[in-house]
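Q: Give me the 3D complex with FE2/S2 (inorganic) cluster.
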Amino acid sequence: MNAVSFSADAYFAEVMREVEAIPTTRRTTLSRRSILKIGVAGGAGLVLAFQLSGKAFAASAPVKGEFAPNAFLRVAPSGRILIYSKGPEIGQGIKTAFPLIIAEELDAAWSDVDIEQAPINPAVFGSQSAGGSRSIPNSWNQLRQAGATARAMLVSAAAREWRVPASEITTQDSQVIHQASGRKLGYGALAVKASALPVPDGKTLKLKTRDQYRLFGKHFGGADNAEIVTGKPLFGIDLKVPGMVYATFTKCPAVGGKVASANLDYLKSLPGVKDAFVVEGTGVVSEVMPGVAILADSTWASFRAKSALQVKWDETNASKDSWSESTKKARELASKVGEQEITKSGDFDAAYKGAVKKVEAFYSYPFVSHATMEPQNCLAHFKGDSVEIWAGTQTPERIITVTAKMLGLPENQVTVHQMRAGGGFGRRLVNDYAAEAAAISKQAGGIPVKLTWTREDDMMHDFYRPGGFHSFKAGVDAAGKLVALSDHFITFSSDGKGPVAGGNIPKEEFPFPLIENGLLTQTMMPLKTPCGAWRAPRSSTCAFAFQSFLNEVATAAGRDHVEFLLELMGEPRWLVPDNQGSLNTGRAAGVIKLAAEKAGWGRTLPKGHGLGVAFYFSHAGHFAETAEVSVDAQNKVTVHKVIVVGDIGPIINMSSAENQAQGAVIDGISTMNLELSIEKGRIGEGNFDEYPLMRITGTPQVETHFIQSDFTPTGLGEPALPPVAPAVANAVFAATGQRIRSMPFFKNLANQAQA
Amino acid sequence: MITLTVNGKPVEVDDSDPSMPLLWVLRDTLDLVGTKYGCGVGQCGACTVHINNVPMRSCSMPLSAAAGQQITTIEGLAKADGTLAAVQKAWVALDVAQCGYCQSGQIMSATALLRANPKPSDEDINTAMYGNLCRCGTYIRIKAAIHAAADDIAKGGVA
Ligand code: FES
Ligand code: FES
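A: Here is the predicted complex, encoded as structure tokens.
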């Protein structure tokens, strides 16, 4: 067992290394043999009391007559094409996008395609995690090959059938076509013959070029839309199996506290309660922390008993974190240079000294929660020598490794069923809730347990986006050019060695690689509160600080912000040579120019209105966004319109892409106005009354434009978010002359109005 | 035992705990899991159902209060033959959902709005949908889908 650990930093480092690794040599074997394995891995899903809509979770072995060249797809003699989506659907649209990539190369008619969630079996499918906006770029080649393999075999089958060279055969809309003789055959009619052919070597496959795309870039509805609008069971929280009990789990509100005593006997006397016990846990926050499990015959009975739970916590080693103390300390540190140097270029001190204009500012942002709409939950059934787990997760493979180790089982005795997740945003990269459900099922004697967290559990036991502080200095020369920039980044550390997850700035982070005389340093304050990856980790907060401060500098220099940003970009180039995952200043300039053009940058605005712009590069995506706001006499801000311009290469599904961009804008505005208080190691907020996510009334108009460049497509779950907050902050400045340097924006502004 | 009328059908449920919120009776007892738990305190709208055609938060309504009332859930909106109602159709056509978790509640609120006000303005929509949170931020499409459903209803579609 691991040493006790209140931090998930090491866990995140490992997960992110995994999802961010660009797969090169390790490639999924697209062999037929792999299909059989799937059947085994997914066989146990049939115990469901009521069926999931569609066909449960798992591939059954292919039916006779079906053409199944690899684990990703099957063509039935009827012509229906079944495609397995291997990744977790968390609202980012991957259950539709992955099959689209396969269908594009297969040249299938989309209306012929049925979609199912693939069973969890990384040996067959490769990585099945969703994080870092890496799903699309990392699976791009694998999925294209899966589709192209099938297409090539269908073409070969037709060539044999018609005795013509394969090169004379084309495909379209699930049909092979021999133009010269006017013959056509549906894929279904060739299923049996194609099945008899050898699977071609991946290297011989010809993948489509841009001009050959028929599906990409069009609007496609989500794979589960029909089930969603009719309320079919799709999510982990919807499941029920025979003999299942409903559980709650209560941990110490200050992370690291242990159960000293609890009124277990009283709890067990309550109606509907079947059992109550203390779970010692592994002491690892990404697994199982100590707490009290209550098992009951309904969710409500378990919730009601939970509210009658009285625990004496032993908080000897528990967190004593205090946000107000941290803020005070950070302010004291602001005037100093950071203890560690992250990156340095040129000679900051000399350049700053020689600067004609100097600007200094202090920025801060608080901790925030993921607050996924579906609270964390998991159904687990420990069966002595195996365990079966149903969960909405972003990292199903991790459930296997963590649970196997925790329960002392071989990994092949852990079966995980991927459920649709009611939101991810990075929260479900950690499967603490799944480990808890498995541990409770085991301790309860091997009965199936559905663990449901209350909203309050969810808010108080998250892996938070860490708060942080930036103390900036910048200098401009006589020509108004930025010649020196420094940031003392004040962050947190759980081990004193490195920053908490999501609270680090790598040296490549924009804009430092573009700064002639730059100095980025950091100081870490101790922290026990668990931190994690929150949608566009670090970028979503750094963008606010960096891009707002650049606007301060541009303003001080008397420069136009757009022109100032373009000057910063300079000549078109990759910032890390030969790395297409790095910032390309040409792509950056492209989105900035288009955003300015679409927003009518420089136009006269109505009285009280302001227009702001911000650019950010994260997760391989280049995004520039403008916001138009108005501010009234009470400093009440209305965001009227946000224009999003992105370059993430070709768009797979335009409907999903626009939805993600709109969602990012709304998330950006929502979160710039949220904060968690932490005192005595406890999160002060419990439910949505205290953590008021934005409602429909705050929604601006959103206009989205994509520059569909020819590069490998990259993900969209995250990179549209970071520029939102600084664009709004810069717009508020343009409207009022008031600079926003801390979140929550609107509350702080309103306070300024009263002061 | 107590009798509830759910989606037009009478059902008998155990009322040994009359304080149990309707939400959990629907989900755990009747296996109608389309109605979702989001907050349990009337803040998010994920649990919205219709009680006598009025949108209500089922997390905040005890079983005892639901007896004898007409209860409609997301599972009861489409016709028995599977034909979707106008709001559901619009939700599919405009591809509203991201994660989809809040959408049953959104659709129930939108349906109640359109039944009372078949041609709502943006302001009407804001008022009617204020109680339904969407963490994924699908508000723009929700608004558009309500307008699309209103157009459909004007042409004879059923809310
Ligand atoms: S669960 Fe009822 S309003 Fe949130
Ligand atoms: S679609 Fe995810 S919460 Fe609304």
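A quick observation: Chain B touches chain A through 59 residues (CB under 8 Å).
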